[in-house]
Amino acid sequence: MVEDDGAVRAIVGEVCRLEGYDVIEASTGSQALEMATSSEPDVLLLDWVLPDLSGIEVCRELRRQGAICPIVLLTGRTAKVDVVVGLEVGADDYITKPFDARELTARLRAHLRRSRMVTPGSRPGVVRVGDVEIDGEGRRVRVGESEVKLTLTEFNLLTLLAANPGRVLTRSQLLDKVWGYLAEVDHHSVDAHVQRLRRKLQDRGNSGVSLEAVPGLGYRLSPRS
Q1: Hey, what domains does the chain have and what are their CATH numbers?
Q2: 8 Å CB contact between 144 and 204
Q3: Which residue has better confidence, 224 or 201?
Q4: N or C: which end of the chain has fewer CB within 10 A?
């Protein structure tokens, strides 16, 4: 948990410990980068406003380093543009302040649960769509001979779409299956993660798949003819 306000940090830390979680605390962005790298947390609660680096900068740097754990932004910002910025740099979710302790623990349980299981509706083992190969047990994705580094949310999103090739999945279905609840970030979260996933697949050249938006409905992943 990264939070510069000592009172908030104490309250959130106590709530998490009462749930049985081991909590490592940081009060600055630089501490967060050091501790997240050495501790490899299962989930990261990250305040947006910090005294040195912003939560956005911390999130971007951790993703650049290859961190895959779910990152939940804690923020007083509610504007959709701020939400989208956070999601585009790699956050999985966000909670606005002030927040209810029950909501926080419910979010944590959902993120931890989905990080330890194959996405509901997907098959274990290897799934292939076009030139994309998804190893559900090893949590690896390859395009041809190249491995694609995905966050847990991106991996679960791709796995669910690949388990339903050519079928349109609505944003609500994706939120329910991938996030495990109807997230506060709503459809913006799905859109931002699909865009990031599409860019990563395209960066590996011809993936042999099309990840397309279906206006008014949702998204589908299909092998290219």
Answers
A1: 6-115 (3.40.50.2300), 126-223 (1.10.10.10)
A2: yes
A3: 201
A4: C
Helices (H), the chain: 6-18, 29-39, 55-64, 80-88, 101-115, 152-162, 171-174, 187-203
Q: Closest Cα to residue 151, out of 16, 10, 43, 49?
A: 43
Residue whose token pair is 């669910």:
160
Strands of the sheet containing 169-170, edge to edge, are: 169-170, 218-223, 209-214
Contact between 189 and 154 under an 8 Å Cβ cutoff? The reply is no
Helix/strand/coil (H/E/C) assignment for every residue in 51-92: CCCCHHHHHHHHHHCCCCCCEEEEECCCCHHHHHHHHHCCCC
Strand partners, 146: 143
* Backbone Cα Rg of the chain: 17
13-55: per-residue pLDDT in tens? 999 999 999 999 999 999 999 999 888 899 999 999 999 999 9
How confident is the prediction for the chain on average, in pLDDT?
A: 86
Dihedral (Cα; 87, 93, 99, 102), 10-degree rounding: 180
